[in-house]
Specification:
Helix content is 39%, strand content 15%. The protein is an alpha/beta fold. The protein is globular, with a radius of gyration of 23 Å.
Length: 417
């Protein structure tokens, strides 16, 4: 389906436009259209306009047709497009979704471009690793976002804390000082499994381990149990619910009340807080989640997006040029500054140093990880056994027994069907 001028143009123009099929009528087959699916909220209208304008000026033979997609139901829509061959030429997907799409065999192998043209050695592992399946790179890292600690500067000052903690021990100590006088040292929901995952990785553990293509849940490993113990200690220094996650209720709404010293969230949550309580303007600070030592922040779950090209793209070579531009230094810098994201390379972290929240996020992203690279992980999150496990431990049940039960459920869910 690649580079076949004239074939698509034998159909009606309206069908050509709908399918994103490459060659524009009246151009002699010299210009191709690359249809791009980007997710709602990933890039501003201004960024998309500027990128399109400059890319087309530098590539006279390529036109861009950028179409914004909703996250809801996108999995089925992308899968159908990959199978039919009538979809877009370039798709933005969640970084942890690449394995699911790669399993269908419908993705273009971008390993050569990754190594030769895109500097893959410097990519953030939390974006790059999920895009790599059996040694082949199918997903090209686009941007990252991860959790930091958002804190109330006034409450820190009132408690005599002059600088953010850099180690777990300091964090526990300071949070204990803050958790007094009707104030919460930290609001940490009992089922915030993303935050727990970072603690597990920091201890040297895993959520699940892979061997021979099969995954086994290992929440009962000594490292994972140490992480859960630390989580329990930290969570107790506030009034977060033990049987709910950070969205029930929305932790930003709780923090906006003014009597919570800290939450663990992406920096953009600060905007939601300020909408709820404008009086907190200028009072919010950010720091990376502290690690076990001051030498480096904690490991964090890295969210974000990768770019994929369907194997049946109408002009995959032109789509590769678009990927190279979006993942390159210039537009990575523009996207990071425009959207307060972390760029796809650790070496570009300096472009966001002027933004406190984004800089804290970039420091954590350098040690970021992603969930197990299984095509079945989406099924795990649909009925996540980690959440009830956390509640069981926080409400006094035996940690090892609860972890063994949750690990078995993880193993059962990750069996390749």
């Amino acid at each position: 389906m690649k580079n076949r001028p004239g074939l698509c143009c034998t159909v009606l123009l309206t069908a050509t436009a709908l399918s994103g099929c490459g060659y524009l009528p009246g151009t002699g087959g010299d210009t191709s259209t690359v249809t791009v699916w980007l997710m709602k909220g990933s890039a501003s209208d201004g960024f998309i306009h500027d990128f399109t304008q400059q890319f087309e000026s530098e590539h006279k033979d390529i036109k861009l047709d950028v179409r914004i997609q909703e996250w809801g139901g996108i999995g089925a829509k992308v899968t159908a497009a990959l199978q039919s061959g009538d979809g877009p030429d370039l798709i933005e997907v969640g970084n942890t979704q690449v394995a699911m799409y790669a399993q269908s065999g419908g993705l273009r192998d971008l390993t050569l471009e990754a190594v030769r043209d895109l500097g893959s050695k410097d990519w953030l592992p939390g974006l790059a690793d999920p895009g790599s399946i059996n040694g082949a790179q199918f997903g090209i890292p686009w941007y990252a976002a991860n959790r930091v600690v958002i804190y109330n500067k006034d409450l820190f000052k009132d408690a005599g804390i002059t600088k953010p903690p850099k180690t777990r021990a300091e964090w526990i100590h300071d949070t204990g000082l803050l958790n007094q006088g009707g104030r919460q040292g930290i609001y940490l929901a009992g089922q915030d499994w993303y935050t727990l995952s970072g603690f597990i990785w920091d201890e040297g553990g895993e959520l699940a381990e892979e061997a021979g293509g099969n995954y086994t849940g290992v929440l009962d490993s000594p490292a994972a149990l140490r992480a859960m113990s630390f989580y329990k200690e930290l969570q107790s220094l506030g009034d977060g619910p033990r049987n709910a996650d950070e969205a029930h209720p929305q932790q930003a709404d709780v923090f906006a009340g003014g009597d919570v010293a800290q939450i663990v969230a992406v920096p953009g949550t600060a905007q939601t807080i300020l909408k709820k309580n404008p009086e907190l303007k200028g009072k919010l600070g950010f720091f990376p989640i502290p690690g076990k030592t001051a030498a480096r922040p904690a490991a964090v779950f890295t969210g974000g997006s990768d770019l994929i090209i369907p194997d049946k793209a109408h002009d995959g070579d032109a789509a590769v040029k678009v990927v190279e531009a979006l993942a390159g230094k210039k537009w990575q810098t523009e996207l990071a500054r425009t959207m307060s994201y972390v760029p796809n390379k650790a070496g570009l972290a300096g472009v966001v140093q002027g933004e406190e929240g984004t800089a804290a996020m970039a420091a954590g992203a350098a040690h970021g990880r992603a969930t197990p690279n299984s095509p079945r992980w989406a099924a795990v999150e649909a009925d996540n056994p980690i959440k009830p496990y956390m509640t069981e431990v926080l409400t006094g049940q035996d940690p090892e027994a609860a972890a063994k039960k949750a690990s078995k459920r993880l193993t059962d869910e990750l069996v390749d069907r």
